[in-house]
TrEMBL record, chain B:
Family assignment from sequence similarity: Belongs to the ABC transporter superfamily.
Pfam families documented for this protein: ABC_tran, oligo_HPY
InterPro entries reported for this sequence: AAA+_ATPase, ABC_Ni/Peptide_Import, ABC_transporter-like_ATP-bd, ABC_transporter-like_CS, Oligopep_ABC_C, P-loop_NTPase
Membrane topology: Peripheral membrane protein
Domain ABC transporter: 11-264
Main location: membrane
Protein name: Peptide ABC transporter ATPase
Organism from which the protein derives: Kitasatospora cheerisanensis KCTC 2395
Record GO biological process: peptide transport
SMART domains reported for this sequence: AAA
SUPFAM superfamilies: P-loop containing nucleoside triphosphate hydrolases
Keywords assigned by UniProt, alphabetized: ATP-binding, Cell membrane, Membrane, Nucleotide-binding, Transport
């Protein structure tokens, strides 16, 4: 078990290295190929030649790509100095460089953004997990009834309607018409009540989207499971129906949902672009959009690394949990 | 009527019809038989003959009421003086696993993959012994695993089904079924999914346990070789109806129904020339929605023309051909005996 965990953690690092190499390659090769100058992006449009060269040297942009990548990695693990001869700036580990636009350090910037995504993802995921699976289970058990048809129609709508539609409708009705919720985000530490109020609508809208998928998934899975021979065996033993469903069928239904849930949660932590944009939340997704539209390469790269980190960690956690719930899975 | 007058298990005119979009599927259409404690009945027939549906009806494992896929069940099933078709689902559930138990065809899919073998046996025991502690139930589970021939039962009790071989799994299924000393054991194709070498062991085990516990056993199979080894009586089903019924030796020595001849001819024989080893039943099983008129077997029966048209117009009923031996066939008994002795027996 410990050996497995150790091997997987090494794997995590290797995967992040690959992600870093690929994004680094793309984002620092593209300017070379298209003829845009990263140094120029740092100093702005009205800089003289000397200033550009100075910044190029300070940021290490005059070095070869391999050397630059090496310095980038070194920054991530131990921090690095940006030395222009006269002024030295130290960037502490994990250093993801500086934003072209704001000259802020990327890592602290993104770290300050990730709280929004954690708040958003955790709240929404609890909602959708409970609502979605409960709806799916009830639908499967009442298959063919009006309740089943209505839930599945709503779920189909949830799967089909894009976030920016349901989100905007929710905003128009509950914020602008009824005025029930504020349209601003407050840090939890500043004011928990406002934090909660500001997130209720994004939670519900996001949860609706995911709950629809989970309802369909859990309904289909449970219907499959109910047709399994071992459910018939459980009944043949004379077990009561609530035990047959609640214990034997649920165990097999919830296990695959766990996998999907882990991956969805990991993906959301790395930024929910549409939700953040719709509800004016400034998380990683917002930062991603901002950085892409302004060609802010270090920030794009940072967001990518953050998202990759969350997804890879989520898949690790899912694999570990799977070994706990499924006896057929052996960690080795 | 007191319980003593009735056989231990008595099925009377059982009909199980499934409503579907294409029409009413008459899976079982008028089946009656009796079974005493300590006896084994083999129900034989091809896929769709209604043998599994019959066993699920006895166990009350069909969906009930207005649920989707629930069949219409009529007739009577008497188990030890208690009628089951009209009984409440909760009463039938109480009997399930306690007075009647069932083992299934594929022991891999019939056990829950996420629970240990022991946990699944313990659960069955405690469902009918609410007062039993976990420890008592575990001791009982180990005892049962030992009884069905699982080596190191005190260790294997904590294994998962996938850690068992096919034969071991079927043994564990039998342990699970017998944990509450049921008086009726239904085995639905218990050896079909197993290696040939293991099949005989499982049949031996069922026979030994039956002797030990004195229970009534129903073996459902398409394989006459299986019933030959184990059954006292044989019931041959075709198209949801019984076509022949009698003691096992009689069915093998002097079968009366052309379908039974076909089944006997379909058993591979290694002591014959290659082209003579099998005499297949020609044609395909009948539709259970539009059952052929008259005798359901007539479209496949090589002797249908000898009945003077009765086989297409009149449904044959089980009639005594010899003491305790019944067949549902329009052919005159003398004619059947002539055909069997002259044409069938030399080829078997």
């Amino acid at each position: 078990m410990l050996v497995y965990l150790f091997r997987r953690l090494i794997n995590v690092v290797l995967m992040l290295l690959v992600v870093a190499a690929v994004t680094f390659g793309i984002f620092f090769m593209v300017p070379k190929l298209t003829g845009t100058d990263p140094a120029l992006l740092y100093v702005g449009k009205i800089a003289d030649h000397a200033a550009v060269e100075g910044i190029r040297h300070k940021m290490g942009l005059d070095k070869s790509i391999v050397e630059q990548f090496w310095l980038f990695l070194k920054g991530v693990f131990v921090g690095r100095d940006f030395n222009a001869g006269v002024d030295v700036t130290h960037c502490y580990a994990p250093c993801l460089g500086y934003s072209f636009k704001t000259e802020q350090e990327v890592f602290p910037l993104l770290l300050s953004r990730v709280g929004v995504d954690i708040s958003l993802a955790v709240g929404a995921s609890v909602l959708w997990l409970l609502l979605g699976t409960a709806t799916g289970i009830v639908s499967a058990l009442r298959r063919g009834t009006a309740l089943d048809r209505i839930s599945m129609t709503v779920a189909l709508a949830g799967v089909s309607l894009p976030m920016y539609f349901t989100g905007l409708v929710a905003l128009a009705v509950f914020v602008h018409q009824l005025g029930w919720f504020p349209n601003t985000y407050t840090e939890f530490a500043d004011d928990p009540v406002s934090w909660f109020q500001g997130l209720v609508l994004p939670w519900i809208t996001l949860a609706f989207l995911f709950a629809a998928t989970y309802a369909r998934l859990s309904r289909a899975t449970l219907l499959d499971v109910l047709g399994e021979d071992y459910i018939r065996t459980a009944r043949a033993k004379g077990l009561k129906e609530p035990v047959v469903i609640g214990k034997h069928a649920m165990r097999s239904t919830l296990t695959p949902i766990l996998t999907v849930f882990g991956m969805d949660l990991g993906g959301l932590l790395g930024g929910a672009v549409l939700t953040e944009k719709t509800f004016n939340l400034r998380g990683l997704g917002y930062e991603a959009v901002q950085s892409i539209s302004s060609s802010d390469l270090p920030v794009i790269m940072g967001v990518t690394m953050f998202a990759a980190f969350f997804i890879i960690m989520a898949s690790l956690v899912v694999d570990l949990l799977y070994a706990v719930v499924d006896p057929k899975v052996k960690l080795a | 009527m007191s319980n003593d007058d009735k056989p231990f298990l008595s099925v009377r005119d059982l009909k199980v019809h499934f409503p579907t979009d294409d029409g009413l599927v008459k899976s079982v259409n008028g089946l009656s038989f009796d079974l005493e404690r300590g006896k084994t009945l083999g129900i034989v027939g091809e896929s769709g003959s209604g043998k599994s549906v019959t066993s699920l009806s006895i166990m009350g494992l069909h969906r009930t009421g207005t649920k989707r896929g629930a069949p219409q069940i009529s007739g009577e099933i008497w188990l030890d003086g208690e009628e089951l078709v009209a009984a409440g689902p909760n009463r039938v559930r109480q009997l399930r696993g306690q007075k009647m138990a069932m083992i299934f065809q594929d022991p891999l899919t019939a056990m829950h993959p996420y629970y240990t073998v022991g946990a699944q046996i313990i659960e069955g025991y405690r469902a009918h012994h609410p007062g039993a502690s976990k420890k008592e139930a575990r001791t009982r589970a180990i005892e049962m695993l030992d009884r069905v021939g699982i080596p190191q039962p005190d260790k294997r009790v904590d294994s998962y089904p996938h850690e068992f071989s096919g034969g071991m799994r079927q043994r564990a299924m039998i342990a699970m079924a017998l944990v509450n000393d049921p008086s009726l054991l239904i085995a639905d194709e218990p050896t079909t999914a197993l290696d040939v070498t293991v099949q005989a062991q499982i049949l031996d085990l069922i026979r030994d346990l039956q002797k030990e516990f004195g229970s009534a056993v129903i073996i459902i199979t398409h394989d006459l070789g299986v019933v030959a080894e184990i059954a006292d009586d044989i019931l041959v089903m075709y198209g949801g109806k019984p076509v022949e019924r009698g003691p096992a030796e009689t069915i093998f020595d002097s079968p009366e129904h052309p379908y039974t001849w076909g089944l006997l001819g379909s058993m591979p024989r290694l002591d014959r020339e290659l082209q003579d080893r099998l005499i297949p039943v020609k044609g395909t099983p009948p539709s259970l929605i539009n059952v052929p008129s008259g005798c359901a077997f007539h479209p496949r029966c090589p002797y249908a023309e000898l009945t003077g048209g009765r086989s297409t117009s009149e449904v044959p009923v089980l009639a005594e051909a010899a003491p305790r031996h019944h067949a549902a066939c329009h052919l005159p008994i003398a004619e059947r005996h002539r055909i069997f002795t002259e044409e069938i027996a030399p080829r078997l």
